[in-house]
Design a protein that fits this description.
With about 150 residues, the protein is of the alpha+beta class. The chain has three helices and five strands, in the order ααβββαββ. The chain is rod-shaped.
Length: about 150
């Protein structure tokens, strides 16, 4: 009889253990369901994307402020100087160095735009277009400005 009782206890223990495992598997399966979560949530990319979007917005705003505060005035001054030399176009590289073409594959530096927001060329292009300039992008991310 003692043996039967021990076997019953063992069976009860096995049943409890199996039930605990089944509960754990169910909880784990529920935790893996991601229909309610945004895509790429597991990798944390949503937060990264949000941070990148916020950073891009700040950079775009800073580029617009740069243009309004000093860029527009400086570009107008360069335009005036070049018009006096009968030139109607110049380029701006990523560092804000302005050059004019003086021959085949020859360029002359004419000015430097201090604080030029190199990564935000599209913002600068939009602002220039509103001010009546014609812009285009050349090779190596050069911004060509003409009037």
């Amino acid at each position: 009889m003692k043996k039967d009782k021990e076997e019953t206890n063992e069976n009860d223990d096995d049943n409890k253990q199996q039930k605990n495992h089944a509960d754990a598997r169910k909880a784990h399966a529920d935790a893996e369901k991601t229909e309610d979560l945004p895509k790429n949530h597991e990798k944390g990319s949503e937060t990264i994307n949000f941070d990148n979007q916020e950073k891009q917005s700040r950079c775009r705003a800073q580029a617009a402020i740069w243009y309004e505060n000093e860029g527009c005035e400086r570009i107008q001054a360069i335009r005036k100087t070049l018009e006096s030399e009968n030139r109607h176009r110049f380029s701006v590289n990523r560092e804000g160095i302005c050059s004019i073409s003086i021959g085949k594959r020859k360029y002359q530096r004419v000015a430097i735009l201090k604080g030029y927001p190199s990564g935000q060329t599209e913002v600068i292009r939009e602002k220039l277009k509103k001010d009546g300039f014609i812009t285009s992008m050349g090779c190596n991310n050069y911004l060509w400005i003409s009037w």
